[in-house]
């Protein structure tokens, strides 16, 4: 076989299949499923075709089971809720149910896919803005650890052999080096164990509640958390209302969106209860103190004009762009801070080494 023939035979016409379900797999499914429905393909056939195209083995298995349930007479949203509750959040399922009821499933899926894509892009930019500062921080820690673990002990032994009188800064750095050499493994192990238990605690109800309460009160971090929450609230509220989900059910679904942030979830459910009692949504949101005045006023205007969905659609991009711009500024501020901190620590270590050497050289002269 010629080289060209071998290359054609091994052409990567499809991505490699994988077991776990990624967010991209879900977006691809919604896009393909919606496109097939828009082209007039029957729902069951479209579901099976979209399942066959999935690169996730687990998602394909789940969608096959969903298709079997639908073919047996179940509604799509019921089958999704019963079969893939861990993959499809309740507010997604609520939108699918509305799409089935209104006969606009293709449009609902298109809107849902667009919202997921925008949220994914915002998350990607957020992570991307943190990569460089984190790399700098890791490099700084590694450089300092290497100096304390290898460089300082070498000079420390030399100073001891020469019976040199060491200044305070040198003694401090040598003590730190001895501490790292003797207990570094234990310190690292303690940090790893502490991180493991902290991560488990953050997955509990009390951990999520406490961490959210702390973060919203911390300068800069609190601003980021609140702006991000406003974006999630407005974008999901706009999407659910546009899809035709009833208002009370929309608020219940929004509460599920904020399961990871119990204070916001409770505030939304409180506003829902106030709404069910005949009060305004804006009033219920303002009582929590967790929503910005701009958001509360926008909700009030939307309620008074009976255009809450469109108003939220207008304000969501504002909060998305504000969050991204804020993260960009924080990232740019972190870079020089980390560099200066790294330079300061390295300077202290170098001074601790060179000062005794200069003093000994002066005595020799």
UniProtKB/TrEMBL annotation:
Entry's Gene Ontology cellular component terms: plasma membrane
Record-linked Gene3D superfamilies: Type II secretion system (T2SS), domain F
Residue span, Type II secretion system protein GspF domain: 29-153, 233-356
Superkingdom of the organism of origin: Bacteria
Compartment(s) of residence: Cell inner membrane
Stored Pfam families: T2SSF
PANTHER family, per database record: GENERAL SECRETION PATHWAY PROTEIN, TYPE II SECRETION SYSTEM PROTEIN F-RELATED
Protein name: Type II secretion system protein F
Species whose genome carries this gene: Roseimaritima ulvae
């Amino acid at each position: 076989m010629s080289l060209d023939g071998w290359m054609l035979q091994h052409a990567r016409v499809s991505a490699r299949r994988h077991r776990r379900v990624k967010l991209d797999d879900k977006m691809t499914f919604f896009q393909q499923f919606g496109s097939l429905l828009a082209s007039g393909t029957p729902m069951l056939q479209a579901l099976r075709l979209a399942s066959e195209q999935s690169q996730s083995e687990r998602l394909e298995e789940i969608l096959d089971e969903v298709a079997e349930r639908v073919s047996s007479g179940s509604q799509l949203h019921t089958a999704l809720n019963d079969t893939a509750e861990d993959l499809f959040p309740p507010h997604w399922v609520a939108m699918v149910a509305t799409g089935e009821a209104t006969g606009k499933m293709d449009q609902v899926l298109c809107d849902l896919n667009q919202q997921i894509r925008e949220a994914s892009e915002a998350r990607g930019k957020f992570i991307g803005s943190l990569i460089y500062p984190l790399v700098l921080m890791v490099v700084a820690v590694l450089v300092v650890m290497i100096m304390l673990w290898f460089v300082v002990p070498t000079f420390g032994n030399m100073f001891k052999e020469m019976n040199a009188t060491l200044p305070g800064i040198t003694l401090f750095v040598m003590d730190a080096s001895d501490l790292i050499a003797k207990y570094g493994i234990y310190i690292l192990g303690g940090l790893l164990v502490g991180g493991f238990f902290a991560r488990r605690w953050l997955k509990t109800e009390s951990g999520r509640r406490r961490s959210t309460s702390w973060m919203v009160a911390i300068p800069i971090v609190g601003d980021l958390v609140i702006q991000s929450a406003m974006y999630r609230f407005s974008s999901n509220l706009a999407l659910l209302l546009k899809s035709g989900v009833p208002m009370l059910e929309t608020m219940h679904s929004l509460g599920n969106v904020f399961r990871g942030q119990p204070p916001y979830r409770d505030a939304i459910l409180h506003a829902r209860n106030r709404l069910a009692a005949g009060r305004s949504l804006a009033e219920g949101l303002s009582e929590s103190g967790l929503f910005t005045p701009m958001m509360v006023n926008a909700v009030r205007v939307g309620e008074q004009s009976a255009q809450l969905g469109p108003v939220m659609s207008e304000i969501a991009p504002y909060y998305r762009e504000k969050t991204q711009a804020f993260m960009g500024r924080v990232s740019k501020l972190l870079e020089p801070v980390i560099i200066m901190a790294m330079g300061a620590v390295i300077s202290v270590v170098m001074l601790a080494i060179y000062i005794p050497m200069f003093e000994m050289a002066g005595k020799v002269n």
